[in-house]
Amino acid sequence: MKTLVLSLILALFWAGAPIKEGYEVGDTAADFKLKNVDGKMVSLADFKNAKGFIVIFDCNTCPYSKAYNERIIALNKKYAAVGYPVITINANDDSKSSGDSFEEMVRIAKEKSYDFPYLVDESQSVAKVFGATNTPHVFVLTKDLKVAYIGAIDDSARKAEAVTKKYVETAVDELLAGKKVTTTKTKAIGCGIKWKSV
């Protein structure tokens, strides 16, 4: 009987039974160490005075990422000074999207004068652990790396002037005020991450 049960479990596993991947709100995120566009390795632990983090999976090429670019820069300008820096991560496989090469990341970060880390997740392991699926895809973390919000930056992917709900700003403002986040999850709108072929 035990052998039969084990066989069934293995059969389900090999048949591609869904395995939970990615964080949910309330989970504790694991720190990571990834290469920044300046060539230095960066981890969340490096930010000694941070009260939390706005982690954004982003890229160079997606039209949605381009539409959000100025808003991401503005998020860091507004919140880094009060303890919630923006950390952007590009997990796209550059063999499938040549515009997402590390060299292109460096060029864009210089061109746009990024004052926040833009990290390359070459193995895609960080994106998989987080459960990132799109660019952009946001994870707001508290100081102790608890996931407080997952989803979109706001409710207007294409036009900044059409925004009526600023999900990330509201979540961070509530955390800074010592309140519970009211909207903890929204659908991330953007291009799918370009995963490596298995």
Structural features, described:
This protein is α+β, with helices and mostly antiparallel strands. The protein has one domain (22-192): Glutaredoxin. It has five helices and nine strands. The chain has helices spanning 2-14, 63-79, 102-111, 125-130, 167-176; strands at 33-36, 41-43, 52-57, 86-90, 118-120, 134-135, 137-142, 147-151, 191-192. The strands form two sheets. Strands 2-1-5-4-3-7-8 form a seven-stranded mixed beta sheet, covered by helices on one side. A two-stranded antiparallel sheet has the order 6-9. The two termini are 35 Å apart. 34% of the residues are buried.
Q: Can you tag this structure with a few keywords?
A:
alpha+beta, 198 residues, globular, disordered N terminus, Glutaredoxin, two-stranded antiparallel ribbon
Q: What order do the helices and strands follow?
A: HEEEHEHEHEEEHE
Number of helices: 5
User: What CATH architecture label applies?
Assistant: 3-Layer(aba) Sandwich
- Average pLDDT over all residues: 91
Radius of gyration: 18 Å
CATH class: Alpha Beta
Helix content: 25-40%
Cα(first) to Cα(last) distance is: 35 Å
Could you tell me the number of beta strands? 9
Secondary structural class:
alpha+beta
Q: In percent, how much strand structure appears in the residues? A: 15-25%
Spans of at least 5 consecutive residues whose pLDDT stays below 50 are: 2-19
General form: globular
Largest sheet data: 7 strands, mixed
Spatial strand arrangement across the major sheet: 2-1-5-4-3-7-8
When the domains are counted, the total is 1
Query: Which superfamily, in CATH terms, is the homologous superfamily?
Result: Glutaredoxin
Report the CATH topology name: Glutaredoxin
